Amino acid sequence: QVQLVESGGGLVQAGGSLRLSCAASSRFAMGWFRQAPGKEREFVATISWSGGITSYADSVKGRFTISRDNAKKLVYLQMNNLKPEDTAVYHCAASLNTEQLRSLTNVYWGQGTQVTVSS
Questions:
Q1: Model confidence over 82-108: pLDDT tens digits?
Q2: At residue 3, what are phi and psi to the nearest 5 degrees?
Q3: N or C terminus: fewer CB in 10 A for the chain?
């Protein structure tokens, strides 16, 4: 089974920045999803296996950047200008391609890391 381990979550003031990391056991298309209490899991961003193609939810465009370093087998989510509505548990996800990630098909999930943005 593919194991994903997230790190970098924490408490930050509105307007601040946070950088999440995800360590993957092998190369896949990767993505980030988030889930706030009482709400459904929400798509945040995906990146192709090569890192050449990225996709973002409208709510985070211009603020979040997904990237990867395949040599280190790490995927990052740089989050700038954080807002209270960004508060959620952020999950790293992996699948064979970005299409499967977006359709939630054959997806492996990390345990999640808490991001809390204060007003």
A1: 999 999 999 999 999 999 999 999 999
A2: -110, 130
A3: N
